[in-house]
Amino acid sequence: MTASYLLKGGYVVTAPGRSPEALEIHIHEGLIEQVGKNLKVPTGTQTLQLDSLYIYAGFLDAASYAGVSTPPAGERPSNFDYTSPPDELAGISPWMDVTDFMDMRNQAIKDARKAGFTLGHMIPQGGMMPGKSALVVFGEEDRINSVRKEVTAVAKFRGARGMYPGTPLGVMAKFRDLYKNTELAARHERLFANAGNMQRPEVTKTQRALFPVVDQQLTVAFQVSNDLEARRAMRLQKELGFNLMLLGVDDVAYLVDELKAAKMRVVLKPALPKEPKAAGDDASEEVQARLDKVQEAYTQKVKQAATLADNGILFAFGTMETKAGEALPAIRKMVAAGLKEEAALAALTTNPARMLGVDNFIGRIEKGKLANFTISTAPIFSEEAQIKHVIADGFVYDYEVSQKKKASGNGQAAPGITGEWTYESTTPAGSGGGTMTISREGESYSGTITYDDPAGGGKASASMQNIEFNEGKLRFSFDVSAAGMELQVRVSGDVAGSNFTGTMNIADFGTFPLSAEKKPTL
């Protein structure tokens, strides 16, 4: 890290809606010192010549799990009562700090930075109330650089397994109970402080952690997965009166009037399903009707951001369980479908800063703001734009912008991944493993993975889906059936020779390490 830089030769977009300008930027000790033309800078300032590149304020991921692990599950006491479990076992731990479970060297953070994100509103993994979020700069990897801790208290409609609250309605009832008891505890503490002759009230650590929520000093960031959960969260907010932000809102077309009336702050996933293909000329009426419904659903998804913007609903983009590298391609499709570029850029910069209460030093390029920049080869929402540099907290990261190498079309397998692999993984339930068998079919890959059957009785197997291998990075997913549920497992990591090092993300349960070794070919 150099203490002082001068960025010159590029086109600066100082804020959403502003035209690119040929300006210079002087940064010092991680802050923007000057913005203008022909700047005078101190001796020793290093110049970064950004010939005709486009400079934007660094993107802020409004809800991220990058590098966040799930806290280990506690042990059940000998007198355990599943109808009234200890808070921590029931997934209720609002006192926890997400930064205690972050790894800044995790590949997911590197991928997020490469995708243009310089900061993340980090969300804790876990159950119903897993802890408090933090705003973290994706800069130095040897330490967690928290811009602000206790940004929000995170809540989810995630019931506890085998105990109360085990259902979404149980979560609602438990949330009401926690909130009301916390209100009483706060009232008793104030009375005790003003009347020394009364017995000191007993306050649990859950209640103490929620005092700022009932005092409306701390927002509840409620993660939802559909319109029903969004309505349930808003119902709780209307009933109890806490400050609310919705994470992961979907089905916007069915919610827009309620979101607008509640003046709700919304975090939208920058992810889209695969665009459906058109039916062939010989398709039957039944097939055509089904495809029309699929196309209609896709169109609603791709227009969600534009619908929010057109209705004046404050929203930002948050990757959550999605891949950071998919964000910009998805947002570009949203722009093509009607989202204005100004609104798209605001959802990556000024909007999340405003929603999280940090717009006084994040979101725009001006004196006094953090020196975080996303620098691209062309206007950021154009198809040809590639991110060439990212500056986070004054650290400069450079990326290759040449065309990615494509697999050859001669039917030969790309080296490194085809064959049989043995893998090991570790979760709170213990260590396990199995095999991965990958083959090449034309321009694509297919594979099978074995795993410890959750129902017991040995191994089960599943097809490996969406296998991607590019520049040493391997990604795929597979489905697991467990206790009547279908869980999607996402695996990603780096291939180095015959070794694979990465993570697997299990929906609703967290992210865990996974390593593999390729068996030699005889």
Question: How would you describe this structure to a colleague?
Answer:
The protein has 522 residues and is of the alpha+beta class. It is built from 10 helices and 26 strands. The protein has helices spanning 107-114, 168-194, 205-214, 227-240, 256-261, 285-302, 304-310, 327-336, 341-348, 350-355; strands spanning 4-8, 11-13, 21-22, 24-28, 31-36, 46-49, 54-57, 59-64, 117-122, 131-137, 145-156, 219-223, 244-247, 265-268, 315-317, 373-376, 387-392, 395-398, 419-427, 430-441, 444-452, 459-470, 473-482, 485-496, 499-506, 510-518. The protein has an 8-stranded mixed sheet. The chain has an 8-stranded antiparallel barrel with strand order 19-20-21-22-23-24-25-26. Strand 21 (444-452) and strand 22 (459-470) form a beta hairpin. Helix 2 packs across helix 3. The model is unreliable at 404-415 (pLDDT under 50).
At a glance:
This protein is α+β, with helices and mostly antiparallel strands. The protein has ten helices and 26 strands. Helix 2 crosses helix 3 (205-214) and helix 2 (168-194) runs parallel beside helix 4 (227-240).
| Helical proportion, percent range | 10-25%
The main sheet comes to: 8 strands, mixed
User: Which strand-content bin applies to the residues?
Assistant: 25-35%
Number of strands: 26
- Mean pLDDT level: 88
Number of helices: 10
How many whole angstroms does the radius of gyration measure? 25 Å
What characteristics describe this protein?
522 residues, 8-stranded mixed β-sheet, 26 strands, 22% helix, globular
